[in-house]
Design brief:
Number of domains: 1
Structural class: alpha/beta
CATH class: Alpha Beta
Largest sheet: 6 strands, parallel
Shape: globular
Length: 186
């Protein structure tokens, strides 16, 4: 299955200032989530940030990247187990959910499984998730694949949303979000 930008919603999980230093490659994770929020804004995909109540303050830069980002506070690990978050996601009217943030084996994994159980599509963007331990991260990715939950990359997300180089402003978006390796002339 491919991502349909008109059905997609980006969910960023547990990206809080005090918690981030404990994660593997935390700066890369912050950069990846910022990239995804910015791209989602450009192609009008709603963004929901789920902050775990006990992990500290949210990253303000994420909230400032877009006026359309919605933020919620949770104590559950699966975003569908929290009634406020579930209501917020339902209000988007979307049926495909892209999961990013932390931790791969906890919030990301449990949310993906909950979406599958609810018969909703979810995708885990592998270069935008992390954990405190490599073994937990890799084991979660392996289990997601075994369950048939798609594991994709940011670049796959980019190209699946646009679908064609005929997409309006394709060149501008490519210049902004890719490293120009696909552009032989401008």
């Amino acid at each position: 299955m491919l991502i349909d930008k008109n059905k997609a919603c980006l969910i960023i999980s547990c990206m809080q200032k005090e918690f981030l230093p404990t994660l593997i490659d935390s700066q890369k994770l912050i950069d990846s989530c910022s990239w995804l929020i910015d791209f989602a804004n450009h192609i009008q995909i709603p963004v929901v940030i789920g902050n775990h109540k006990k992990l500290g303050a949210p990253i303000e830069e994420f909230l400032q990247l877009s006026k359309t980002v919605k933020s919620t506070e949770m104590v559950t690990f699966s975003c569908l187990d929290d009634e406020n978050t579930k209501t917020m996601l339902e209000a988007t009217g979307r049926s495909q959910f892209l999961l990013v943030g932390a931790e791969t084996h906890i919030s990301i994994y449990q949310s993906a499984v909950a979406f599958k159980k609810a018969k909703l599509e979810s995708f885990v963007i592998v270069d935008a998730v992390s954990a405190r331990n490599e073994v937990d991260h890799t084991t979660a990715i392996e289990r997601l694949r075994q369950l048939g939950i798609p594991v994709i990359t940011k670049e796959m997300f980019f190209f699946e949303c646009l679908r064609s180089s005929a997409y309006p402003k394709y060149i501008d978006l490519s210049i902004k979000f890719l490293d120009q390796r696909y552009l032989r002339y401008i």
